[in-house]
Amino acid sequence: MIRRTFQLVPGVGPWREKDLWARGLPDWDALRAGGESVLGAPLLDELCRAVDRAEAALDRGDIPALAALLPLREHWRLWPLVREQVLCLDVEADGATERLLPTVVGVLDPDGLHTFVAGRDLDALPGRLAAHPFWVTFNGTSFDLPVLRRTFPELPAPQLHLDLRGVTRRMGLGGGLKAIEDRLGIARPPHLRGTGGREAVSLWRAYRRSGEIDVLRALVEYNLYDALQLRAVGDHAFNAGANRLHWPDRVVPWERGAVLYDLSRLLLSLAPTDADRRTVEQARALAELEG
């Protein structure tokens, strides 16, 4: 897909790129060999110089340099180059009306699944994010990253951020994440269906009020599914984009089964803290007094 990309300079947008393809210039090599008959010399020279820079970046695996040459709307074309390295991220917040703060953050990266919980280990999150420079979110531009940066002003910037909300919309897969999952046939388990952002806020408040570890586990499971589903949605979105452009490039959609055992193990590893135990005792004492 990248070697077929001509949107590298001003003056070559989606329409002209498709026109070049239709005129028998399907890739960079064809452009160099026959572009003079289609493009004027000044534009061809500029485009060929950009192609040379893009090819050099591709050969050395320099994803940031490639991304800098591409319009933001076309960053999805980089997916096959980064899909095995991405960090999928989802953030839950406390529901505050003025200043949202992160409560639970789920991550799927090449090392597996990770959860970070406020009051436990949330401070370790920036280190995890810094270790993986290619991030995937759903609406992260508007929600997840701004929420994190309120708590972590020095949060590292990713070298590439693919916000799948915009990508899926352009590929004809509009709607929220769960609606897209249903359409793609990768829906989450029945006990999580119907759970959304409001329920996540309620679960967090219930956990803080009661200290019950099962409540926290329910919230973490919901959050981790939001993160891990992004991996499969990214594959489907890329394939949909390639299909819309009538190119044969495809990736084999990721199967989440490999991480579901890890998810179960992670949930079981969540144990009550001393603060949780004190909260449970206080809640029970209050209930006895009220009873």
Explain what you see.
With 291 residues, this protein is an alpha/beta fold. The chain is built from 13 helices and five strands. Helix 3 (41-59) runs antiparallel to helix 4 (63-69), helix 8 (164-170) packs parallel to helix 11 and helix 11 packs antiparallel against helix 12 (257-269). A hairpin with an 8-residue loop joins strand 1 and strand 2. It has two domains: 2-70; 84-281, Ribonuclease H-like superfamily/Ribonuclease H (Nucleotidyltransferase, domain 5), CATH 3.30.420. Strands 3-2-1-4-5 form a five-stranded mixed β-sheet. The model has no long low-confidence stretch (mean pLDDT 94). 53% of the residues lie in helices and 10% in strands.
Short summary:
The chain has 13 helices and 5 strands.
Secondary-structure topology with pairs:
Blueprint: H1 14-22, H2 28-34, H3 41-59, H4 63-69, H5 79-82, E1 87-93, E2 102-109, E3 112-117, H6 125-130, E4 134-137, H7 140-151, E5 160-163, H8 164-170, H9 177-184, H10 197-210, H11 213-244, H12 257-269, H13 274-290
Parallel strand pairs: 1-4, 4-5
Antiparallel strand pairs: 1-2, 2-3
Helix pairs in contact: 3-4, 8-11, 9-11, 10-11, 11-12
